[in-house]
Amino acid sequence: MEVVVEGRRGIRGVIAEIRGDKVRMVRFVRGRLPKSTEGAVSKVERKLGERLRKDLSRFLSGKVVDFSAYKVGAETGTVFQRKVWKVMRRIPYGSTRSYGWIAKKIGKPGAARAVGNACGSNPLPIIQPCHRVVASGGKLGGFSGGLPLKRKLLALEGIAL
DNA sequence: ACTGATACGTTCT
DNA sequence: AGAACGTATCAGT
Predict the structure, then answer these.
(1) Which of A7, A58, A100, A117 has the CB geometry, 3.0–4.6 Å to A13, for a possible disulfide?
(2) Which of A140, A31, A121 is nearest to A154 (CA)?
(3) Residue A51 above 80 pLDDT?
(4) Is there contact between A119 and strand B, defined as CB under 7 Å from any strand atom?
(5) Residues A111-136: pLDDT tens digits?
(6) Average pLDDT for residues A97-121, to the nearest whole number?
(7) Tell me, in Å, how far CA of A98 is from C1' of B9?
(8) C-alpha dihedral, A32 to A38 to A39 to A42, nearest 10°
(9) Which residues in window 91-150 of A are less than 7 A from strand C by Cβ?
């Protein structure tokens, strides 16, 4: 089931894909918003979809939302990437951590650059908040969806970089 | 504050 | 095996 949420302030919208009781993928919308597809889905799935739609909508309007309780599909990514994503999910709303900080956290100091790669292949932006991972020394770092988007996401959480 | 050089770990090709 | 990367640090300017 696909959940489509309209955004504001320069973020067009977000699409999330749900399968069973897990969120499988999230991506930002570029062009026009497609329609939400449901088809024949189970009750749990419909329910999860509704909850996620609300949470994403709240997040996109600048509300404080905690996504850490959502179950996510764990079938993708290498061992290293999954470690990075796991730590990433625990970065609280409104705060940031550096690539190097995550590297240390997973027992691989010196792998800061590799952490950057892993962030870039995050299949679940917002839910796994890769935008909260920044460079050391108060610098913004990179973003595969484009730096302006990273700035907007951080701005939603009250962080100006 | 910015530039270049160098070391670094993981993932592509 | 080599190159590419969403980095970090340090020495210059």
Answers:
(1) A7
(2) A140
(3) yes
(4) no
(5) 999 999 999 999 999 999 999 999 99
(6) 98
(7) 16
(8) 160
(9) 98-101, 112-117, 119-120, 122, 125, 130-131, 133, 135-137, 139, 141-145
